[in-house]
């Protein structure tokens, strides 16, 4: 499970963000001051840090600098009320990967989280995704169910790639539309159901066990 460290000294804001990240399927650790955050960032196996700029004990900017000085390259999204160009530059120069200005919508923050996680995954060479007896190779664009090669169209492949990137997580239709078809997709409203059906026909062509399941009223999940 993707592990995110959330660093925010305002308890109500931290709780709101923690709940939203947890609902999206992430494992979340929370720190409320700079020194605790720095220790957690060094000791935990993290995939991303959401870091407030203004913190008791040590600023988010100083945490960025210290982590980068020791070679820690975990993606960092900086949260701040500072909106001047010079402040943005200071945050990025300190080592932050992204910058979200308060007040922000939770949807914007979640989109930034997904984008940064996607970017780091693309640069770490995770080219083969596996779940149960299903495997997908991003380089060759081949999909196998056990030893059986499955021929997929480009969009079927993209949809399966996205689902395999989030195993056992219930993914909503809106999120699939945003991530696979594009946020402003204006096509057939039943497009996801159509492609899910196509995938199932191909994944279960030899009467294999159904692993692409529907969660009624919510979305879809890969579950063995």
Report what the structure shows.
The chain is α/β, with parallel strands linked by helices. It has helices spanning 11-23, 34-43, 60-69, 85-93, 106-123, 154-164, 173-181, 191-203; strands at residues 3-7, 27-31, 48-52, 76-80, 98-101, 128-131, 134-137, 142-145, 148-150, 171-172, 212-215, 219-222. A hairpin with a 4-residue loop joins strand 7 (134-137) and strand 8 (142-145). Helix 6 crosses helix 8 (191-203). The longest helix is centred in the middle third of the chain and has 18 residues, at 106-123. The model has no long low-confidence stretch (mean pLDDT 88).
Descriptive terms for the model:
224 residues; five-stranded parallel beta sheet; four-stranded antiparallel beta sheet; 8 helices; 12 strands; elongated
Task: Report the helical percentage.
Answer: 40-55%
- Give the tally of β-strands: 12
Please outline the major beta sheet: 5 strands, parallel
Number of helices: 8
| Uncertain spans | none
* Rg, Cα atoms, Å: 20 Å
β-strand percent reads 15-25%
| Apparent shape | elongated
Q: H/E series, N to C?
A: EHEHEHEHEHEEEEHEHHEE
Category from helices, strands and their pairing: alpha/beta
Query: How confident overall, as mean pLDDT?
Result: 88
Strand arrangement, major sheet: 2-1-3-4-5
Oligomeric status: single chain
Give the N-terminus to C-terminus distance in angstroms: 16 Å
